[in-house]
Write a structure and sequence with these properties.
The complex is a heterodimer of chains A (about 450) and B (about 220). Helix content of chain A is about 55%, strand content about 10%. By secondary structure, chain A is an alpha/beta fold. By secondary structure, chain B is α/β, with parallel strands linked by helices. The longest helix of chain B is centred in the N-terminal third of the chain and has 14 residues. Classes of the chains: A alpha/beta (about 450), B alpha/beta (about 220).
Chain lengths: ~450, ~220
Amino acid sequence: MNNYSHFLKEAKTMAANETHRLKIKKAITSYETQVAAMKKQQFSDWREARDVATGIKNEVLENLPDLLQQFEEKLTSRGAKVLWAENAEQARNYIGEIIARHNARKVVKSKSMTTEEIELNEYLEKLGIENWESDLGELIVQLAGEKPYHIVTPAMHKSKSEIASLFVEKLGIEYTENAEELTMAARAHLRKAFVTADIGITGANFIIADEGAIVMTENEGNGRLGMACPKVHIAIAGIEKMLPRLADLSLFLPLLSTSGTGQQLTGYNSFVRGPQSATEPDGPEEMIVILLDNGRSGIYRQEKFQHVLRCIRCGACLNACPVFRTVGGHTYATTYQGPIGSIITPQLRGMGEWQHLAHACSLCGACTEVCPVGIDLHHLLLETRWQAEQEDAASKKWHFAIQMWSKVITKRKMVDALRPLLKLFIPVVKPFMSANQQKRLPEMAKKSFAQMWEKNEFSR
Amino acid sequence: MSSRDRILQNLQVPNSLKKESSQPFQDSSIYSDYPEKTKEELIEAFRAHFLALNGEFFHVRSKEEAAERVAELLHSVEGNRYLVDSNPLCRDIFSSVPELEKQFDDITKTSLEAMEFAEYSIGLTSADFLVARTGSIVLRSSIAAGRRLSVLPPLHIVVATVEQIVPSLDAALQNSEFRNGEWSYGTIITGPSRTSDIEKILVLGAHGPKRLALILLDA
Ligand code: SF4
């Protein structure tokens, strides 16, 4: 089945799934209440904060090559390594080489969408490496054999009772629907992994040029443990994660946590500037940052799309999107779901295969409204449709047909002349159309509007 | 051509976006609750945020009083093995805790395995800054706590002085003394470890400390 028919099939099933809808509604309602309260509490003017953030991110785009080099220079001066990956395969191979060099058997991962993007889990499995997801949400989807449902809340679609049954089966605990007990079971399950893992793999929420640091945002502490215990720390960051100055975090951390989860600040925001230094008691011996392009420079070169690289992956546009809420995260079958995913997936993974995502949108603009870095999401979805039309050979014929059609339909006389023909045409296509229950052909009126108008049949 | 050069070359395309100013941005212009500058107000702002995050807050006048609070905290947990960072203030306070069978280990000589199996119940550290606006504690690995001490034990106690309170995050992050030096890791701690991954229900102590206590000392 291709991606498009998969989407159609899943969307149809999910839209009718009431249990799913209730779970998502509950989660997003609680999210929305917290976000609205935090925006009010924390910012004197949310829109001003958004504009300042947008300006800083534009500055980043303008100077990206310089900032990347500055970042590399600073970070390597403290003994860390920077590797540049043009695509997913190269990034995986880098990791494979590091694993081989250290003869590593066990990896502990913290939540990272870039590792999902390069399909690291599948790769590690092939290598026969023990791979522990340590974020609770990620652990839940890993145990269930699923992909993350949402870039920020990977297990949004799982109820307490589903998680309880999963833990009974996979972790061998007693059945409980108590969220605290379930969390403690995960904590106990993973503690050992942190202390015995050879390599810790994390993502990065930001990378800082003037400091040569990566920044990791989390609530649980699994990221901190993953960067503190194993001998090797690998961080994978998209090249667009850049901020010019460390002090910019003073805006971006509250912005991300407010939009992402409705918190003033996320529990732990850690910055790493290198491996353990000579004066420190602990830390990894080796730190490697993999800078991932994987199609981003292609987006960068397009004037119209460049500004999607401002995205800080807060997930707000997913939560706001009526399509996401209805069809659910898994229907997209992408790493990045919702509006932002529907724009970048066709760019990163091919227009032909993924352009249908841009059509799963009512252009309501709710995403654009909530985006903390002012990305004009709904217009870019429209732009994606346009681009797909331009590139698609099949659509050229369609274009020609539409052009011909519009020549006819815009001329009164032509329409009148064709009307009897149309009347004959309808009974022929009708059986085919009604096979598709979503749309039904209307009955043709006896007289056309124009005819009625001429005879003045509207007067009373 | 290396991958590095190819990626950089791919990014070398004239940018049509307008040049934006590169002024470091000022917190005070954005945040509604940017704290007032008197010391009392800063302490109060910090305290309110820290308590709202389920932190345990103790404001003390002297080292003796600090040692008493530490003693109470030690009594509140099981086990008697603790990790203490080598900051003189921390060592001082910890060693003046009265009549308690206590033993603290040097992080530099404690292996990871030992840290897991010995079940340390408390990590006691100093801090670099306390951020009033958010109730956060900023610390670096170079304050001799390293990376593990503040995250592995279930109770993290921080000892800091009122001088270390700054109004907002930008003050800490722009401090040149903070940024210089040989440290490799720093973290901004805002409340105890937490998760809401199960039906958005808040649970404390996901992987890091379940409890976070601050002993704030009048200098
Ligand atoms: S596009 Fe905007 S709202 Fe969506 S995830 Fe990115 S930053 Fe958040």
